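Lab notebook, bench 4. Continuing the backlog of folding jobs that were queued last week. Each job is logged with the same field layout so the records can be merged later without manual cleanup. Today's entry covers DUF6691 family protein, a 143-residue chain. Filled in by technician R.K.

JOB TYPE: sequence-to-structure
TARGET: DUF6691 family protein
LENGTH: 143
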Amino acid sequence: MRNLFALLSGGLFGAGLLVSDMINTDRVQGWLDIFGDWDPTLAFVLGGAILPMAIAWRIAARLRAPALGGALPPPPEPRLGRDLVIGSTLFGAGWGLVGLCPGPAMASISFGGTGGLVFLVAMVAGMIVTPPVRRAIDRAATA
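JOB STATUS: finished
OUTPUT FIELD FOLLOWS
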């Protein structure tokens, strides 16, 4: 049942990306081009996501257990930390340079050509390499 809801949620998210044209790298890069041909579409997409997520977080805060079993994750750390700053900087740099983030990168397999595939491979490689690199940095910091 959990896998079915995961599939439905991912499909809904993908449909939202498609309908809002957020899989279009030119549209995303246009949002970041504030001194050129600025495209405000992403602001409306982000704004439209705030209200449903605010409601979802309020509901989740009252739950004792997830409806589909398992355990609720702990609340995120409310303060800025090294990991958040480094991660968001790398995410933003990749997003700005290529115009893709993880969801649209998956969609780019079908239309992104070689560039989309290279980005997807680099993104997955970064996800695989990050945990051992982080452990090595933490060990070096405590030594």
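OBSERVATION: The first helix runs from residue 2 to 19.
SIGNED: R.K.
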